[in-house]
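Entry 14: structure prediction run for Amino acid adenylation domain-containing protein. Input pasted below.
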Amino acid sequence: MTHPEREQLFRLLAARDGLGAATGSIPRRTGDAPVPLLPAQRQLWFLDRLGARDGVYTISQSWRLTGALDVEALRRALATVVDRHEALRAGFGESDGEPVQIPALPGTAPELSYADLRGAPDSADAVLAAERARPFDLTRPPLVRGLLVALADDVHLFVLTLHHIVADAASVGILLRELSALYPANAPALPEPPVRYGDYATWQATKPLEAGEQYWREQLHDAPALLELPTDRPRPPAESFRGNGHSFRLSADLTAFCQQHGVTANTVLLTAYVLLLARHAGQDDVVVGMPMRDETVPGIEQCVGMFANTVAVRTRLTGDPTVAEVLAQVQDACLGALEHQSYPWERVAQDLRPARDLSHNPVFQVMFVLNSAGAGLELPGVRADWLDLPVTTARFDLTLALATTPDGIEGRLDYATDLFDAATVARLAAQYEHLLRAMLADPDAPVSTVEARSAADRTWLRDGGHPAPPAVSDGTLVTTLITRQAARTPDAIAVDDEIRLTYAGLVSRARRLAGVLHASGVRRGDVVALGLPASAGAITGLLGALLAGAAYLPLDPGHPPARLAELLADAYPAALVTDHDIPFDGPVLHLDHLPETGPAPELSLGPDDLAYVIYTSGSTGAAKPVAVHHGALAELAESFRKLHGFGPGERVLTIPPLTFDAAAGDIFPALVSGATVLPWRDPASLTGPGLVRLCRDRGITMVDTASALWQKWVAELAAENTPFDCPLRTMMVGGEAVPATVVRTWAALTGGRVELHNHYGPTEATVCATSYLTFDAGELDGRVQLPIGDPLPHVRACVVDDLLRPVLPGVPGELCLGGDAPARGYRDRPGATAEKFVPDPFSPAPGARMYRTGDLARLDGEGRLEFLGRVDRQLKVRGHRIEPAEVEAACRRHPGVKDVLVTARADRLVAYLVGDADPLSVRSALRDALPGYLVPDAFAVLPALPLNAHGKVDHRALPEPAETAPPAFAEPEGELEQRLAAIWAAVLDVDRIGRDDDFFLRGGHSLLAGTLMAKVRAELDVEVPVRTLFEASTLAAFAGAVRAPGYREDDRLAAVLADAVLPADIDARRTPAQAEAAIQRAMAPRIALLTGASGFLGPHLLADLLRHSDVVVRCLVRAADAVEGAARIEQVLRDHLLWDERFRPRIVAVPGDLGSPRLGVPAAELDAVAADLDVIFHCGGEANFLRPYAQLRPGNVLGTTELLRLACRGGTPVHLVSSLGVYPLDRDAVITEDVPPDDPAGLDRGYEQSKWAADRLARAARERGLPVTVHRPARVTGHSRTGIGPLGDRFANLLRCLVLLGSAPAEDFDLEEDMAPVDHVAAAIGHLSRRRTGYGCDFHFHNQRTMRFGEVVAGLREFGYPIEAIPFEAWHTALASAAAETADPALSAITAMVERTSPPRRTVFDCSHTEVVVAAGGLVCPPADRVLLQRYLAHYVRIGHLPAAPRKEHR
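Run finished. Output tokens:
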């Protein structure tokens, strides 16, 4: 909120409540006692302890400074500003388990680092990004630092970074004003700040809180636990805080509107945000977070500190209020929040006691921030241009940050990249501006009518994501089309059953039946019941009824007599055709005993005449007769004919019974086009292998079935590994969701050659309304189920809200179907018809109707429809809105789950599992994959999900899950659990704690978590991260974590081992000749795919490939587009002195991301990439030794899986760059290339674990026939001639530590530095890829000619650095102190990696086989000696990583 905004709100608050601004001064504290934390500081401290680092809660500003910069003057000014403001000098610690701040004495100079990039200015972006992401240690003040990057003598980049715990947004403007004022050499002293931050914090701690507590309890009582915004990806189980931002500008002028309506700009902009969020979430109760700065105390506006507290603004939109009414409500909420802002927000969250969940922020998940543009940096003689650098973190799902400027309003929408795509957020920003303008234009409009879309978007949405549907057929009815087909091909087989009917025979028999029906009194518009099983006779019966001018009503003769009697009584048909004994009070005809009669009269039927009636059960269970007219049936037949290619020569297996309308979708498209229908009487009896045999024996080319039955076939085919040797080309499924995993298995079984059509359509929309075609689901960006696709040509599909208005793309709503699809209605049910068949507000045709399906769907970004479940199936459990399909999809990923259904029973989420999975195992997997509220409370294992007669799941037949008795109290086991139980009981103030008790369910919360950890540390002398309590919240689990802080090894490795199982669809088994041909193509490739081209080894491998062949290399690279990607690759090659202009036409950038599904590449583009690929080189990924496995998994493990899946499409050989780090180094073993790394035990770091999993996956793919070569280098160092090497790796950091400290351990440890120059490793891999011996095996790159640690130290001295030899203990202490004092990244990294007693490495690598093979190509690894070291040192001096010897570091 801007300062003028706050002043205006204060005035409004004073006018409302008779309040005045606070007067008088805050008392000064005496002594040096620790200062309590303010509420917002406590929350930030806790989040830091929870692991929210990596720049998540830092404030960073950057400028480009052009001119003669006085570095020392800037350093002096920054130090003076820090001295002036107590908050900037504060460090944070604990006292009696409570966090406190301890201001350091003046003179605590902030860090101002200097990086000289005048020789390598293109590295600046990486340096700035690393600086902004570098975490602060809250215990080591000052929590402010600067970085200067020299690009030229008169051009610098300046980055100023503060931790949010010592400064709010307004503080940055104060700091910049003072920094600008103090920079000049003759700058006068500034007056002392009127308020000391420590005094303010101490004063605030004494203020009473009762009023605030009551206010917030009332304000947020029963608030929704989660703002259910539709996301592009499922919410992960824990926030990663990865983010991005979208910048935009608002040109709206709010001044006149605000004056006219007596509201602030903050109120108007926040209201527009609330309305947009409500529209997307489908909620009428929205809570938004907002920071407020306390400026009730005179002088605070001149002080730096964390004076802001987060407040919640709740808006209720029940009853569709007007814009003006919502503005008044929002402004009143802001006033109330302002009045009670000093109440600690963490206590608000504590009082509300939301369910513990690491997947989202409690109470609110979206933030709104409004600031004024604020002061800039103004340095005399220097031009300072502010840099708008990319956002990389997100504290909330969405944060709308607006800043008022003289030219308008600058906006940025920050978002969690775990949840949203950039395109989605850009669309949100555009909708925000449209909504704001509409709001300003008509403040008296109900909020439901305020438009958030452009006119073009409204048209696109109204038409269901595509233009209005054209007329498909020419109006000719199916009866005419079938008789015409019989005239054209009389001898062609129409029905192939126990008897074979030609087209002429079918029409002849049907006409005879029509004559008998007419003679029996059947007339136009009557209904004829067909009590026949699927057979040639049944098809004859329905065609005969239609030729008689009647509609047919299919009945299943196997149904109970009472059911048949009920339907016959309700339908009152004019006649019954059957071969069973079905009681009926009317004419009963048997096809085998038809009397002789004359022909039926020729009737001129029209599209409005009734074609068939089918009874369908709705959500109430009551059967309703759906009446479908000829026009809709004709349109369906013609759409299907064109969509699926029905025609002569096609043989269609009809699985659905006639009582299921899908049968009509097989029979009529086949018969109007000259195909052959093969009815099947007993769907349940047909197995997967049986289907293949049937298709082979009877030449079946097309099959239509229910999704559930098809999934059963796939499972059976996979279990028996049945060869798919049959002519089937098209599979049509529908009725249930289609899991993508099953599609991939199906594609693997069928060779990816069978079209799979996912049909969607209720009976009321004439069989099928939308369809989606795929072969292997490879185009679906990692989605868990197939979309239902696009409307058929004759169908209009629209997703609407409760008021039948089109919803925004991505927003769930009810799917409505119009055009020529809707049936006439429910026969003789005018009330039910009027309820479900409503006037179509989107159709230009007068009297048009659309059918409300009751199904929940949404449009994706490409305009495809996604089925989300039933509107009436959406669950609400303990305040969370839950889509069962999301939970079901996660369950299906478990290897033991074959099928699943999730529903709610008595406010419990219940999962019904089919398969051999242990429910405890499934629950454990779900906890790792889903937010806590989506994990089912109960599980039931069934042999199969109960199905009804139509093959759909019968929800009413599901049993109640077994009741779980409350667990008996379990005594703590062992001394550790007993001691922890006593600590827990004391902290929670309860009598006793059992080993199965949950900290949070027994009354714990985030505040008490910090207290608990302090007591654990004090009483047990063990350091356990706060986050551990959230992940292991029962006493027994927590005790396990305390025994081995973090995670137990078996727990950590469980996920690694699970990820190392190769998916079943990755299978490249080929004939030996095919495999050999693929290898020969890879040795002299035309097209190659390379990952890691913008890294370190990748550019050198790329250059080697381009120099030694004419290959075109497609490079997967993170970039907005191919142009940016190519430019990035070129720059990296130039940086490493590898660029050759002749490379340009042979480098093709493929924008993507290893960590994203399908490599982040659109399906069509990935198909193009894979189409003519000869070889894949995979050396991309993230090399970070400090990140946990879960964070490295997407790029390093899942990315490898996607590349192997891509390679399997054509059996493309793969060269994987792994690491020798996949072998534990603490074992007495000699490792040769023939020793596989099969056991990950002992791999402690996430990086080695991720490389091991990828390595194992690649070798598994090799076992399944894919030509895979694994290259395992050890340490890859700089170029052997240029010395250009990586910054930030262990060796580079070690060299910087030794030089900056000026000392090294005197002991010459049993430590040898192996250095394999990058040019040698790249040349060796390239050479092997061009030799037959380089395929299908493993190669190791470990420089046997190593350099002992003592030689490294001697080499530094030889280069001119004065390195003193001191005992290790003294050196280690000096290292830790220097790291603490300077926060130098290299010192900090080495401190984290060096232990006081480091066990020597015992594993020996024998790489003689690799050395012999590459030596044949004239390649010998240079020795790791002083010559090589000197080249590296010279390079590091050139780029500023090391100071020039023997001078001090340049500043």
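Notes: The domain at 873-957 is CATH 3.30.300.30 (GMP Synthetase; Chain A, domain 3). Will compare against the previous run tomorrow.
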